[in-house]
Amino acid sequence: MSHNTFSQSKPPSFFEQFDTSSINQQDKQHFLHPYQVFDTFHEDGALPIAAAEGAFIYDSDGKKYLDAVGGLWCTNIGMGREEMADAIAEQVRNMAYASPFVDMTNIPAAQLSAKLAELAPGDLNHVALSCGGSTAIDTAFRLIQYYQNCRGMHQKKHMISRVNAYHGTTYASMSIGGKPGDHPPEFDYIQDTIHHISCPNFYRAEKGISEADFLTTKLGELEEKIQQIGADNVAAFFAEPVFGAGGVIVPPEGYHRGTWEICQKYDVLYVSDEVVTAFGRLGHWFASKEVFDFQPDIICSAKGLTSGYQPLGATIYSSAIHAVISEPGRGRCFAHGYTYSGHPVACAAALKNIEIMEREQLLEYVQEIGPYFQQQLKTLSDLPIVGDVRGLGLMACVEFVKDKDTKALFPEELDIGKWISNQADARGLIVRPIINLNVMSPPLIITRAQIDFIVATLRDSINACLVDLRQEGHF
Fold first, then answer.
1. pTM of the model
2. Is residue 2 part of a domain?
């Protein structure tokens, strides 16, 4: 994989302009971070990132890290692409902004919408553009309400999601999400019309149950929930093809097709949250149809859509939905959207990103390199606190347990995932800690040598943590 399209590495003099202590002080005093943990943040602060190139990031002191998180599931084509910078700059010079409201558009937004309709499966031919994954989900939520009202189904407003799902951080999208840690008591959530069924994580299944029986139970649970609420009241089912922040959980084979068939049976819209899985993460533009054999009514995407170069989300929905909401002679107005919907600079970045992925055949590359990534990570399974190594494509998770036989977890306050990620940081590797997990989603350009570094460094980090755990009496 050629890296000659990336910007040149920064010389040591570049980092001399930064005063890390001053940056940390400014950050602590003024920047409220997403998911900031107040008790530890004041003490530990944050790692200031100053530069990025390819799969690597650099802190303000010039230390280099392999970013196995891919930013936040998003730096798919790698950072520092000169032609991305050129495309963004050219669009800024030509036209940095144009209002998207009512009867005005811009060329990149129109072109991108047409491209997404071409790439998306089935009759997903219509696109609402927003600012990211959360707003893409929020737009789907409002579109569903609008659609049901347009067809006279005013009571059909209940939504079903799953425990451990992550769907964003707006009021609606966080309510749809089902991660317990994302629902602290200090926040409020929609609770009367949003429901959650259990997570299809076979690793955590009841001991002795077969995967086939586990699948049957999970499908039955969805159908029972729809019947309990009343099919005439259930509007949509929200699901990630592969759980992202919930722990890279790949449901049993047949789960997606089975849940889709149940939704079809009861006239329930299927919203596939592909904010993480779209644009190459699993080796396809979209995973719903190509990987899991089901045709959603709505796909939400973001992240890899621009590879993180610009904030952009897309809610791609069916012609069947559009025919209902746009019925002629009704005098309707879709009173929803954002100042930055279809932002021309973000759309230009997305178009260039897709062009690069097509030209460099990154989808095919992921289909080749993904199995190697998964196989190498599974070699960590011999370590005494590694309970499960799971994933698909370039999504992966290592789950840490105190007892491999019982699958018992370490106490949550121990924050074992963070303990191990701190060891990895010190060795030049960034992984994402989520309590008892280390999650990875490296750029799609990752090489075999870089994968080997990830696995070897993670092994060293886990072993170093084991020494500390034993010395402190935790293991």
1. 0.96
2. no
